[in-house]
Amino acid sequence: MYKIFRFKSLTSTQDKAKEFSKKGLSDIVVVAGVQTKGIGRFKRKWHSGKGGLWMSILLKPKSIKNSQYLTFIAAISVAESIQKISKLKTNIKWPNDVHYKRKKLCGILTDGIFGKDNFIAVGIGLNVNQNKFPREISNTATSLNLIKHRAFSIKKLLDEITNKFFYLYENYYIKNKLEYILNSWKKYSDTIGKNVIVATRTKKIYGKAIGIDKNCNLLLRQKKRRITKIIEGDITVRH
Ligand code: BT5
For a Cys-Cys bond, which of 80, 141, 155, 216 suits 137, CB 3.0-4.6 Å? Predict the structure, then answer.
């Protein structure tokens, strides 16, 4: 069973989760109404005003070898919960975004916390009731409210996502049934089969996304049929 800790405002739920890990806590969920220093991958800024669901799930898995799968579990849980609660069909963009009509509804950040014991904090940011965004993301971000023209219960979404997450974590991740997770993820993914541009830290790579390997890496077929394994990066689908 998990326990939920709620806060009105935090710098980042990831920071608080790390703090809790120092006390040895795990299987907990940290939620904040507002984050003053929300973070994305590669230390990017995550806009976290009022109206969104900002949460981190703190885990202490026996092995952290497959922690990329926790990002996938989070994305599946978000996509399924949104479908249940709002009837909206969303897509997962490799590796960590949940999108609706090419706009970002949710981002996921999975951090390892290493020490005597190892922990993982899975941060989930879902835009729920915001009706506008800062200029820099106003063309790329969306919220459930902007799509459906009504407010949603953040608490309901939190409960649904958390229940689904722990169900998949306990029944598949811990039991090493990773194939099931990969297959569920693929049902929601709209990356595979598309021509994409991958921006890595150092370069841009063009190719066709042809699959995902056992470590959740994206497989890209480039010219001359060369297959490149993408471990991290940002994808743009070419339409
Ligand atoms: C992510 O990074 O998408 C991971 C976001 C994780 C946020 C959660 S909230 C709870 C927990 N606590 C935290 O502090 N973080 C986690 P990335 O793929 O790097 O995308 C970041 C980019 O998304 C930014 O550079 C912006 O372009 C865009 N962005 C920022 N805020 C956004 C928002 N609220 N909605 C949509 N896009 C946003």
Answer: 141
Q: Which atom of ligand 1 is nearest to the CA of 40?
A: 2
pLDDT at 224 over 80: no
How many A from CA of 223 to the centre of ligand 1? 32
Ligand 1 centroid to residue 103 C-alpha, Å: 13
Q: What pLDDT, on the 0 to 100 scale, is given for residue 223? A: 83
pTM to 2 decimal places:
0.97
Phi-psi region of 43 (alpha: psi -120 to 50; beta: other; left: phi over 0): left
CA of 185 to the centre of ligand 1 (A): 20
Spell out the domain ranges in the chain: 3-188, 195-237
Specify the fold of 195-237.
SH3 type barrels. (2.30.30)
Nearest CA to ligand 1 atom 37: 141
